[in-house]
Each structure stands twice: as structure tokens, then as C-alpha cells.
Amino acid sequence: MSKYAAVFCILALAACAGVGGGQFSGESATFGGDNILRNDVFGLIKKWERSAFSCNAIEGVHAKTDDLKRIEGRLQVLETWTVKACGQTHSYRVNMREDERGETDFNVSYQK
């Protein structure tokens, strides 16, 4: 199965299943499986919410895949995660890149 097909399957299942007991919604390459990548990304967002907005209560996350492509033969996914926390809504850009070992490098940035 190609990596595009695998990512598509993950996105489709995540959209139907409602990962995380309703806390996570939408579509993301991080949803499904053992959710290690999802939890790593979410951990950074929780730290940002705590330090920038003094908020420890994240009510929900909605993810949207904005771009999915191959660059130099490696998969790259760009997503927007919209977070509801402490009565406010904030958005984060999540950029994920497959490395030479097939693992995923990612960064998260706050969108104003």
C-alpha cells in the first residue's frame, strides 16, 4: 500500500471514528494507530496554552489537513489545529515531515 493510501485511510477512519472520546475531531495524519504523534503535537499545544494564556483546560481540538504532498520523495503534511480552551479559540499550524528513516519530524506554531 502506498503511503498516500495509508494516510488517506488514517484520515478517513479518524473522520468517522471521533478519536479521543470526542476531544479530537476532524482529520489529521496524527489520528489513529497508537496516537503517539497526536499526543506529542497535543503536548506542545497544551504547553503553549498554559504558558501564553494561563489555561490548563482544553475542551476540544479540531484538526484540518491543509496540504499533503511529497517533497524530495518524503511525505509532508500541513495541518491547522483549532483549539477550544478556557472559553477562547486559538489556531496552530502543524507541519509534519517524514525523515530519511521513515519517522516523522514536526513543528507547531501559533497562528494569530
What keyword list fits this structure?
alpha+beta; 5 strands; 2 helices; 112 residues
Task: Describe this entry's structure for a reader.
The protein has about 110 residues and is of the alpha+beta class. The chain has one domain. The chain is about 30% helix and about 45% strand. The protein contains two helices and five strands; from the N terminus they run αβαββββ. A five-stranded mixed β-sheet has the order 1-2-3-4-5, covered by helices on one side. Strand 3 and strand 4 form a beta hairpin. It starts with a helix and ends with a strand. About 15% of the residues have low confidence.
Helix and strand topology:
Elements: H1 3-17, E1 24-26, H2 36-53, E2 58-71, E3 74-85, E4 88-98, E5 104-111
Parallel strand pairs: 1-2
Antiparallel strand pairs: 2-3, 3-4, 4-5
Keywords: Signal
Protein name: Lipoprotein
Signal peptide: 1-17
Our count of domains comes out at 1
User: What's the number of helices?
Assistant: 2
Which residues sit in consecutive blocks of at least 5 with pLDDT less than 50?
8-22
Form type: elongated
**Rg over CA atoms:** 14 Å
Largest sheet: 5 strands, mixed
Average residue-wise pLDDT: 85
Write a brief structural summary.
Helices cover 29% and strands 43% of the residues. By secondary structure, the protein is α+β, with helices and mostly antiparallel strands. The longest helix has 18 residues, at 36-53.
